[in-house]
TrEMBL record:
Biased composition (Low complexity): 16-46
InterPro entries registered for this protein in UniProt: DUF3597
Name of protein: DUF3597 domain-containing protein
Domain of life: Bacteria
Stretches assigned to the DUF3597 domain: 3-135
Residue span of region Disordered: 16-53
Lineage: Bacteria, Pseudomonadati, Pseudomonadota, Betaproteobacteria, Burkholderiales
Amino acid sequence: MSILGRIFDKILHRNTQAAQPSAPQAGATQTPSAPQPQAQAQTSPAMGAGAATMQRVDIEKVLDDMAQKNPQKLNWRTSIVDLMKLVGMESSLAERKELADELGYTGDKGDSAAMNIWLHKQVMKKLEENGGKVPASLMD
């Protein structure tokens, strides 16, 4: 699996089971309640047909929840290194260079600061394109 694929798996599919409604227990009665808002659905060309019914994952909430449970203080909002650490991945320069290759980075990989900034923006953009809801502040 690609590095980007592993990032997607750790973030986008983190709450898959928790998000699925549980079946009512035997003998339980359901009472009518106020109408619930429809899940926000959005498609992009990368998501393909049938994605219109997919609920978008709130990336900021998922990562904030992960950060609260992590003993390290990680700046995942701006650092690709900390984002990778937060989701339990190796964040070495070699891994980041491989991620840069996957995402089509054409800059100087010797300038790790510039590459890291580009990588973080691209990962957030790809999360947005593939079912994530990413605030504009994380895409800048």
